[in-house]
Structures are given as structure tokens and as C-alpha cells.
Design brief:
156 residues, alpha+beta, 2 domains, four-stranded mixed beta sheet, 8 helices, 51% helix, globular, PHA_reg_PhaR, PHA_DNA-bd_N, PHA accumulation regulator DNA-binding N-terminal domain-containing protein
Length: 156
């Protein structure tokens, strides 16, 4: 049994004809359906039906490519170029932590003025140009959110 099958609640198989089969609903689904599973925060894995290889990451990247090709892309050409330049460096873990901080900020109640002020600085840290991040994080190994560096707790 692959790791994908062990840890995912829902298994999707991709067949050679490029069709996706959801084993939970016993039905073929589209990439749009997989996108909705992601938005619903559902736990799933996509495996190649022939080899059993976990191809979840590949499918998620395909969804991102389609989203970026749409009317409202999230990543600018400059941001994409900076990401490509950082391959082979320790940016992955830093980027993942930054995105997690952003998601946590988005989940905070909007009426909490203290959390909003701290969160605004966190988001500002996320949006810093890559060179400033490199300097501040030396390089990414010692990332500390701005609010923690200022002696403020991120948790209320």
C-alpha cells in the first residue's frame, strides 16, 4: 500500500485516458471537482491507476496552471521568476510557513483589532520582495515572523 493510500481519506485514480475516478463516490470526476475538494479542505490522494504512483502533487500543479491561465492570476511574472530562481535553495519550507501564516491570518475574526494589526505586519512580511526575505531570514533557515521579532505573541 502506498503512503498516499495510507494517509488520504479519499482515493482518486487517474487512468491512461486521463480520466479521474473517485473511489469514494464510484464516479468519474473532473479537474474542477478535484479543485473543489481542495477548496473544501478534503483529504485525498491521486494515484496512477496502472503503477499506483502518487501523482497528487502533479494534479495540484495542473490545477494551479489552469487557475493562473484564467482571468485573475494570483502570481505575477516577477513572482514566478523569483520562485524559479529560488529552486534548489531552502525557499520551500519558508514559502509553506508564509502561506500557513497568511491562512491563519485570514481565519482570524475581523473584529479583533490586535490580531488585525499583527496580521497586517505578517502579511507585509509575506509580501516583502525576495531579496529582503533573503536578508531577513538569513537565508530562510531562521525565519521568524515579524510580530515575534518585535516581542509580540502571535497567539492571543
Amino acid at each position: 500500500m502506498t503512503n498516499a493510500k495510507k494517509f488520504a481519506e479519499r482515493l482518486i485514480k487517474k487512468y491512461p485516458n486521463r480520466r479521474l475516478y473517485d473511489t469514494q463516490t464510484s464516479a468519474y470526476i473532473t479537474l474542477a471537482d478535484v479543485r473543489q475538494l481542495v477548496r473544501d479542505n478534503a483529504s485525498f490522494a491521486v494515484v496512477d491507476a496502472r503503477s499506483g504512483e502518487d501523482i497528487t502533487r502533479s494534479i495540484l500543479l495542473q490545477i494551479m496552471v489552469e487557475e493562473e491561465a484564467g482571468a485573475a492570476p494570483m502570481l505575477t511574472c516577477q513572482a514566478l521568476a523569483q520562485m524559479i530562481r529560488c529552486y534548489g535553495q531552502a525557499m520551500g519550507a519558508h514559502l509553506e510557513r508564509s502561506i500557513q501564516s497568511f491562512v491563519e491570518f485570514q481565519d482570524r475574526p475581523s473584529g479583533d483589532a490586535t490580531a488585525t494589526a499583527v496580521g497586517t505586519r505578517e502579511v507585509g512580511t509575506l509580501l516583502m520582495p525576495a531579496q529582503e526575505h533573503r536578508t531577513a531570514a538569513a537565508p530562510f533557515g531562521g525565519f521568524t515572523p515579524l510580530a515575534e521579532r518585535d516581542g509580540q505573541s502571535l497567539r492571543s
